[in-house]
Amino acid sequence: MSAVLVTGGTGKTGSELVRLLRERGVVARVACRKPPAGDPDAVAFDWTDPATHARALEGVDRVFLVPPVNSVDPVPVVAPFLAEAERRGVRRLVLLGTAIVLPNSQELAAEVRARPGWVVLRPSGFMQNFLSPHPLGERIRRDGEIRTSAGEGRIGWIDARDIASTAAVLLSCSDIDPAEPRDHLLTGPKALSYPDAAAIISAHTGRPVRVVHADSRELSAHYQAAGVPAAFAEALVAVEARVRAGREDQVTTTVLDLTGHAPRSFAEFAQEHAGAWLAG
C-alpha cells in the first residue's frame, strides 16, 4: 500500500489537503485526536502517545507533518515520530513550518531536514486567522476591531487552501528529484498591514473595522484569555514586534510556480467570507 499520512488532517490546511489528494486518486490517511466518523482512512493520533505513531504509519510512504498546536517546544514529541517514520521507510516528509519566527521552529525544521525526502513549507500568516474561532477573527466578528502592536508592518498573508494545493503537488509525486528545491517560502500575492486588511474587510462587509494599538502586555493577556498557553502567547507578541520592524514583509511566487495557479488575494478571501464577520 502506498499512502500519504496527513497529521492534523481535520485542520485548516490538512482537511483541504486530504480533499485534494483524494481527488487525485491518492490514498490519504487522516491522523488526529478524534478521527471523523465514517472515514475508513482516519486514525487516532496523539503526539504524546508513540503507540499511535506506529499504527498511523502502517503502509505509509509519504507524510504531511503538522506540528503540535501552540507548542513552544515541539521537538521532543515530534522527534520520536520522525525516527519511526524513517525506520518504516517513509520516502517523502513535508513539514508545515512557518515563515514567521516562533520558538524552536528552526530546531524542528532542522530535525526534518535530517530525514530522507524532506521538504519544508514556510507559509506566511494565514488568512484564516481573520476568521473565528481564532482570537483575531473572533474580535473582528464580535467587536469590529483588530488589536495589534504591529503598526504599519506588513505580512504576505496566504490562504490555507493555497498551502494545501502546494503540499498536494509535492505529495502526489511518485518520484523524487534529488535536485528539486526542498525549502519553500509561501505567501499570498501581496503583503498587507493590519490597517490594509481592516479596510478590505470593511469594504466587503459594509461594517467598519477599526485597528487599535495594544501594548505587549495587553496582547499577551488577550491571547491567554482566548485559551492560548502563556508561553505561546508571549511568542505571538514577539512576532508582532518583528512585523512592526518590517521583517515579515516578503512576497514570493512559489505557489504559482509549483501549482500553476496564483494564490488567492486577501480581497478574494474577504469577499468569500464576508458573512463570517457579520454574524451576531
TrEMBL record:
Domain NAD(P)-binding residue range list: 8-103
Pfam annotation, one family: NAD_binding_10
SUPFAM superfamilies assigned: NAD(P)-binding Rossmann-fold domains
Classification via PANTHER family: PRESTALK A DIFFERENTIATION PROTEIN A (PTHR43162:SF1), PTHR43162
Name of the protein in question: NAD(P)H-binding protein
Source organism: Amycolatopsis dongchuanensis
